[in-house]
Amino acid sequence: MSSILKGIAASNGIAIAKAYRLVEPDLSFDKKTIDHAETEVTRFQEAISTSKSELEAIRDKAREELGEDKAQIFEAHLLVLSDPELLTPIEDKVKSENVNAEFALKETADMFVSMFESMDNEYMKERASDIRDVTKRVLSHLLGVQIANPSMVTEEVIVIAEDLTPSDTAQLNREFVKGFTTDIGGRTSHSAIMARSMEIPAVVGTKSITSTVENGDVIIVDGLNGEVHINPTPEVIEEYKKEHARYEDQKAEWAKLVNEPTVSKDGKQVELAANIGTPKDLEGVKNNGGEGVGLYRTEFLYMGRDELPTEEEQYEAYKAVLEGMEGKPVVVRTLDIGGDKELPYLNLPKEMNPFLGYRAIRLCLDEQEIFRTQLRALLKASPFGNLKIMFPMISNLQEFREAKAVLEEEKKALQESGTSVSDNIEVGIMVEIPSTAVMADTFAKEVDFFSIGTNDLIQYTMAADRMNERVSYLYQPYNPAILRLVKMVIDAAHKEGKWAGMCGEMAGDEIAVPLLLGLGLDEFSMSATSILKARSQIRQLNQKEMEELANQALMLDTNDAVIEAVNKAISK
Ligand code: PEP
Ligand code: MG
User: Closest ligand 1 atom, CA of 503?
Assistant: First the structure.
């Protein structure tokens, strides 16, 4: 039966493919008495041998694509599956107690897991975790349940998940993953932001996709309207294929602007920059005509690994981005870990309110070796391009002064040791906490630039968690409260002869762009895939008229009233 689920449009485009569930499988079973122990042992041995072939294939693929380190994880799993010390007691249990293989496996494996875990020895603890993983795999074969292995997907799929962490998203194989849809999440959750930079259509926050969809169902992800169609009729599929073609034509039209400047009809020029997460994203920046990098989210360099990146590794990444941008501005944000971006290897305690907790600059000023290593890598890379450094989550001036002092100290030490460092590095802050927006006039005297981080600024101003689809109606970018804060920041910068940019998702939003142009924003930084559309829009707008529109919007009473006013003005 066909059905439609509504969600939040997180990444533009349309994708049609079969569902691939990336969810924890149900591995529950009952203890049973069996009649033929020999048959049960054979069933167990077959599950072991299927698990082995599966793991060998995963290991080989990991070796090819992810390197020897990752392959070793699966090699260790294979060793467990060949270990008679584990297998023999399971088979003995089946035979002596006449119990089903699932029960014998789980009981025996649990016994080894708790024994190894209780040892004060890292190596044995890792073996416990290997046994736990392997048990799951063998159980899944005994029960005929599939365990998701996204790295082994070999046909086009739509990934269905409760949620995707940023590191899950980074591991999606663009060749086969045509779209994704989740139960939870909002437009500015980091998996949504990454989907946009990877150009994978996505709908998040559907609330119930995982409980509605089975593996193999045909799915349409409509990332333009925030809809997911499940097992649609052939007519609906046809309609969407046409819609997809229309969208591709539209993109081809925008692509003509790739080398054009971003100038309004009455001659006001602004800069359209891109938000990136890794040096690999530079290709997208170029293909989409980015005039700079307005936000390099360096935290992705720290993710999907077991330890902090070294100074050398970081230096190479920053140098690659600076060189790749060939002298165009590159705003690098220092580590912004926390919120929905976790680093398990830092072993930070769980917090009640991670978005309000120990994160970003707070962590960096506390764990200064992490911060200093990053700053040194940045300073050493600075001669290779036009570097600007930006601190995240600044909430008061003292924090900025402290961060800047650490930067100055590292710079001085490097210069004294004869290392060349650019003497032309602008140092700015993200304005994403309301206290900082309100104090922008004071900050403007000390910083070189502002970049407004509306993803967080909106959540903190409206007290609406950006990850929570149940309060997404409160996540209101055009609410006059937000617009007034944005205006305060831009005006404060200009009064001191500084520039103001925006790197939150709002910068590329078609309702917001006319308002931001009117408010005098200098730099708009967005997912690379939004740049050409925004350029096309700005070239059709008159800045003076948008100034009037923005002034009117500041005095309106609600988010909806602003949307209405903008729509009226731009449809003229
Ligand atoms: C923001 O908060 O607007 C921002 C750009 O940073 P992030 O989305 O990484 O929190
Ligand atoms: Mg932020």
Answer: 5
